[in-house]
Amino acid sequence: MTKAVSQEWLDVSERFPEIAAACGDTVYAIPKSLIAAIHSVVPTLFSPNELAFETHLAETGVTGFFLNQPFRYPILSQLASDSPEQTDGSIDDQIRELLVDEAREIGRNSSAVDSYLKEVAQRNKTTQLRQAGYVGWLISEPTYRTEMDVFISKWKRTIARNGRFTAVRKSLLGERTRIHKRSRPFWTDLMLLFRRWGLETCVTWDLPVPLHPGLESRDFYMRSDIEEAGLHVFIPLYLLRDRDLSVYEIVKTQRCLTDDAHLADWLEHRSSNWGYERYAQMLELYVYLELALRRRYGDRLRGQAGRLDEAFTRFWLESEDGLLVSTRKESTTKTRQELGRRLKACSQQR
Question: Is residue 209 within 8 Å of 203, Cβ to Cβ?
Answer without folding.
Answer: yes
